[in-house]
Description:
Blueprint: E1 2-4, H1 7-14, E2 24-28, H2 29-32, E3 42-47, E4 49-59, E5 62-64, E6 67-68, E7 75-79, E8 85-87, E9 92-103, H3 111-115, E10 130-131, H4 134-152, H5 159-183, H6 186-205, H7 209-212, H8 217-223, H9 228-239, H10 243-259, H11 266-272, H12 278-289, H13 293-300
Parallel strand pairs: 1-3
Antiparallel strand pairs: 2-9, 3-8, 4-7, 4-9, 5-6, 5-8, 7-10
Helix pairs in contact: 4-5, 6-9, 10-12, 11-12
Amino acid sequence: MQHFKTLSSYLDYLGLPRPEHPMLSVFNSKGSGYLPCPRESSPPITNDCYSISFKKYVEGDLNYGRTKYDFTNGALICIAPRQVLQWDDSVVFEQKGFSINVHEDFLKGTELAQQLKKYGFFSYSVNEALHLSPKEEKQIESIVENIDIEYQNNQDEFSKDIIISQLSTLLKYANRFYERQFLNRKELSNNLLEQFNKQLDVYFNSGQLPEKGIPSIENIADKLSVSQRYLSDTLKKETGKTSTEHLQLYLIDEAKNILLNPNKTISEVAYDLGFEYPPYFSRLFKKKEGISPTEYREKYKLN
């Protein structure tokens, strides 16, 4: 897989104009009326840049990681360094919007570099991009216009600080809009939890636990066609518990049923549930229930 360490080499590959700054590029249709067209297709590639784009795709397949883009118009797309990108020649672009590419070294030593770690949307699958309302579009566009003006100016000692400040503001607004999107997705969130539990039911009933162990959150997320981070964030927002906590609660609930079988030892119960080490099962059970598996069995054993 081809990897581009510099912004210039990445833009050259795309067939886009060289950047005004070696570690920053801004393409904005506001001034020119259109965005430059990238190359028609690409096999999987990676680079060392953050990308923040607002583009509209009419049709075709554009892959980010292992998922395909949601082609709903008006999507703000945030891509982190070293994420896999791929698209084919069926993609049709509407050349409106903006695209900002920032090499990760441009942000080193700044407060924004730390802030980026808090923004989960950079690790989301692209089919979970942020869909902006017309009012939100205008707010984002005004910030991008300020970045573009500073980008086009002659660089001086204040340029980097000003641009980073504007980027920070843009991402804070994006974070606000993502929070809004989560709040507006209550039905989707509930459905996601239902599907999450259904996947656990299927796996647990398949008899694979003793042999293959507890399923990973990544594996469950793949089954649901969402990213691991998005799954956890959505469940946390709606239920107050992460995907890992929901998995643990499911395990404990199953354990309670098995513990009431007096013919199984505590270790056998742990192995049946996919735990490689029985002491870990006992610690988790006590943490969640306040009593040990043995104490639970004694308290609720059948008379």
